[in-house]
Amino acid sequence: MLDFTKFIKYSKPGPRYTSYPTALEFNDSFGYDEYINKLKNQDSSRPISLYFHLPFCRNACYFCGCNVVFTSKEDKMTRYKEYLFKEIDLVASTVDITREVIQLHFGGGTPTFYSASELEEIILYIKKTFKNFSKNAEISCEIDPRHINEDQMRIMSENGFNRVSFGIQDFNEKVQEAVHRIQPFDMTMDAMKLARKYNMHSVNVDLIYGLPYQSLETFKENLDLALKLDPDRFAVFNYAHVPWLKKTMRKIDETTLPTPDVKLEIMKYTIDFMQKNGYKMVGMDHFAKPSDELFKAIKSGELHRNFQGYTTKGGADLIGIGLTSIGEGQADYYAQNFKTMSEYENAIDSNKLPFERGVSLSEDDKVRQYIIMELMSNFKLDIKRFEEKFNMNFKENFADAIETLQEYKDADLLSIDDKEIVCSPTGEMLIRNISIPFDAYMKNHSKNKKTFSKTV
Ligand SMILES: C[S@@+](CC[C@H](N)C(=O)[O-])C[C@H]1O[C@@H](n2cnc3c(N)ncnc32)[C@H](O)[C@@H]1O
Ligand code: SF4
To answer: Which ligand is nearest to the CA of 170?
Structure first.
């Protein structure tokens, strides 16, 4: 067994790199007109990926880091749906909607707080506008197993949804109580049975390690139970504890959180457990069966990282619709919608897309984005391929980063030569740390200021 106490020093704040530059760098200098121009002038041969944010939830899970609107008011949800339709119309007047749609994702919050008929109404509105859905489009929804019924699953299936993701987090009762999320195993099993009955090709389950009262022993039981569900994919997230950003996290007693060495032990055990049970590690925090497309993508080098984690559909432009949604033009820009409902509605009422801020990528950003995304997806960087792509000498341009990585090399966390950087199995667990030296913005963030969650 590795001695994880010697890795505790790597537990420091760092981005999760669902984007580069990270959302902290989004700013006002990328303005509305520039964004609209980008949307209008996108290459029509490039497909589209659509993300819809359906932000509503009834009760807060204390660990939740998502962009959620807590409500039980039906009229608030109906009103939001109407605004979504107006936003779809505004997108349609800007973007070439004859482009092929290869991906549609409903994220949240909890999209299934909308009833079956409301979900159908939303799907039909999208399909009425974007008529060119690919036959093989990935259409997916995040589902809270505590809030799903057969009608909803059936409606999704009938309308082309072919993958779902269930939030579990942890099955242990003491952990569930501490995070304010009671979800018995049988409830999750019933949701899984529904997904199978309605032919969802790929079913993902989310677990989190780093929650209150978790230990290696409790997490082992957690994994044994989760395996009984036989999902196609697992996401096993490192709990991002950012109470200075998320008020509900302040309800968590920090003295009950597992220490970094325990978290590393849990992670190491999880990786071995997944391998033993036929799942392969696919990028940071994710595991897939060899039959799953995510695993096939890693073999063919087509795995890409984005705001939803990892995807096989890398060549598309992502359009985010709804409160706080983020869009991404391929190696070009990131754009985020307003975060408050009033600003979101006001923009749409003035016939403007509810874009708040973003970033247009500089040449330097594009190069670093490539390196960081390669590391985060494949745990290696093919230096020769990089040099051909960017016509740039890697060692000359990244001498500082290479020097910083020396410490990781000495600790056997990676190897580096003229051809490639390759992480060792232990290095893979510290991939956020290994990516940081390539991030040009990290030096602007004071070490004392609370910004990112801890890497371990
Ligand atoms: C929008 S939620 C999933 C759908 C649904 N609301 C649910 O909870 O079942 C997305 C996922 O993000 C993960 N997540 C939320 N907050 C997190 C945090 N602070 N750190 C790590 N993962 C987190 C959870 O695993 C959760 O299932
Ligand atoms: S984890 Fe899911 S159900 Fe819980 S508050 Fe966050 S979005 Fe809602």
So the answer is: 1
